[in-house]
């Protein structure tokens, strides 16, 4: 039985690197590498959890196509329970073209596909029995699930003493708080990027952002801040945890890796500072390889990295 269920978006990523300018219309540009990877917040986080030794399951929707076959095969290889993935005949599997610039920054071309059709009726609630945590991964990119349906799922989990958490994605539709607010009072942990949290809250400074969400019922807010590490706040404590000093190759999936590290600390019962530091390490390691999960290591290898690697500013 998985300890953590990751419910949300599932994507296949086609990565090309380096792409520092888009080719002119009708022209061809060569790149050094082009690869096919699994992506999407739910799949990335579940794989990250499995890599660090936390049993994980994933729930979501893919198409009956080659990309869907590929995604399911990777989940099996990564020892992620994929029995909760539903296949849809009316939409293809969601996919993203990821253009990785020479400095590691990324641009995206995205097809929503089956993720846009994921509904609460697709979620087999029996699969939550025995889980320690339910993580909603990719909120704001699931139009049929965002809002009240997500709130109902989280409330169901909390009634059964299952830890709840949620991670957002950038809301290109511009719904922001309208789509998220119903879920907040049912969240034990909220793990957005600081950029997304600014758009949601209308506030700028991490402490003010965190207070905005705490006042709406969230138990713990952990803001992902890239090279600035993370800012974590609860009613009992708040602190900034610096990032590890690494030279990123590809930042794709680093936020999902952070979420995996944070959830690992939560289910292991670690304190918030230990959890945040481990999450930063999992996120940092993710940036050291091409793809969303290739850089994530085992629990022991991650702890060794933490012991050997200074943090920024030290």
As an assembly, this protein is single chain
Runs with pLDDT <50, length 5+?
none
Report the principal-axis shape: globular
CATH class: Alpha Beta
Strand order of the largest sheet: 5-4-1-8-9-10-11-12-13
Please tell me how large the radius of gyration is.
18 Å
Structural class given helices, strands, pairing? alpha/beta
Let me know the largest β-sheet: 9 strands, mixed
- Total number of β-strand segments? 13
Task: State mean pLDDT (0 to 100 scale).
Answer: 95
Tally of helical runs: 9
| Total count of domains | 1
Approximately how much beta-strand content do the residues carry? 15-25%
State the CATH superfamily name.
Ribokinase
CATH architecture descriptor: 3-Layer(aba) Sandwich
How do the SSEs run, as a string of H and E? EEEHEHEEEEHEHEHHEEEHHH
Query: Kindly, what is the distance between the CA atoms of the first and last residues, rounded to a whole number of angstroms?
Result: 41 Å
Helix content: 25-40%
For this structure, the CATH topology is UDP-N-acetylmuramoyl-L-alanine:D-glutamate ligase
